[in-house]
Write a structure and sequence with these properties.
Elements: E1 7-11, H1 13-22, E2 34-39, H2 46-56, E3 60-65, E4 72-75, H3 84-91, E5 96-97, E6 102-106, E7 121-126, H4 140-143, E8 146-147, E9 150-159, E10 165-170, E11 175-177, E12 180-182, H5 184-191, E13 197-207, E14 211-220, H6 228-235, E15 247-250, H7 264-272, E16 279-280
Parallel strand pairs: 1-2, 2-3, 14-15
Antiparallel strand pairs: 3-4, 4-5, 6-7, 7-9, 8-9, 9-10, 11-12, 13-14, 15-16
Helix pairs in contact: 1-2
Length: 283
């Protein structure tokens, strides 16, 4: 008897993005036995999940975790009864923590924040398979990631009243502009929802007036052309004007780490060394 739909695959979003853009019309390449993709390592855009499901019949489940959580700590299954557009809201989150894991959001002052989907802070987790420290570490800065049994993940976000985690950034990547946070992840995911955008990475760059402003580095689909004004207009339906990037770089590809994640350190170096051409959008 032939078995089907039994296998699960996993990879970071950038690798599945290649499948969408390189094999968009070849749905017959989908292995008959593949039933589910576990995707993580960085935020998985809803647009990518939709494309894989609609073009290739592949169901994507976003999961979140770290090496220190061994490795999965949450998964983005929508609640029972959610359908249509509602399910995508939940599938775009990092989901709820796995059974046995606890999670909370902690503000800069150390106070635990409410689960209202609005209060933002650093995600902390603990549980039986979440590590409590590093072996023979004597580095106070590293050891500060652990306190009272909780692991400081370095991820910033919120938790809603159903327990769904929505991460907006890595703490080191948060863009603080005029005293307000701008999520680089939200901007990236929105940009990659444009039909002519293959990849996008957003970093904060110094600004004399506002402290920091976003710089968007964009990879445009082969044969297409885009301008900063067009992309700002595309983003404006979901973002306030003050959140929109004024600085844009159109690049051949987003640099990646050895495991396929976007390497924003390289983009920051390109900017600092003036190795990329910056275009400005008119406010």
């Amino acid at each position: 008897m032939k078995e089907s739909n039994q296998h699960v695959s996993g990879a970071v979003p950038t690798l599945w993005n290649d499948v969408v853009f390189n094999d968009a019309e070849t749905t017959e390449k989908k292995p008959e036995s593949l039933r589910l993709i576990l995707c993580g390592g960085s935020a998985v855009p809803v647009s990518l999940q939709r494309a894989l499901q609609e073009r290739h019949g592949l169901l994507v489940l976003q999961a979140w975790g770290m090496t220190e959580t061994s490795p999965v700590a949450s998964a983005g299954l929508p609640p029972v009864g959610a359908d249509g557009e509602d399910q995508w809201t939940y599938r775009g989150s990092q989901g709820r923590v796995a059974c046995g894991v606890e999670g909370r959001i902690v503000a800069d002052d150390g106070s635990e924040q409410p689960w209202d989907g609005k209060a933002v802070g650093e995600l902390e987790v603990r549980g039986p398979w979440v590590t409590g420290g590093y072996y023979e570490s004597d580095d106070p800065e590293v050891d500060a990631k652990f306190h009272d049994g909780w692991l400081r993940t370095g991820d910033v976000g919120s938790i809603d009243d159903l327990g769904y985690i929505r991460l907006s950034d890595r703490a080191k990547d948060v863009i603080k502009s005029g005293g307000e946070w701008i999520s680089s992840v939200d901007l990236e995911n929105a940009l990659m929802g444009h039909d002519d955008v293959v990849e996008a990475a957003v970093i904060g760059i110094p600004d004399e007036k506002w402290g920091e402003r976003p710089l968007a580095s964009v990879v445009v689909r082969e044969g297409a052309t885009l301008t900063p004004a067009e992309l700002c207009e595309f983003l404006s339906k979901d973002f306030a004007k003050w959140q929109l990037p004024e600085s844009w770089a159109f690049i051949d590809e987003v640099p990646r780490t050895s495991v396929g994640k976007f390497d924003k350190k390289v983009i920051r170096k390109w900017y600092a060394d003036r190795e990329i051409e910056i275009e400005k959008s008119k406010g």
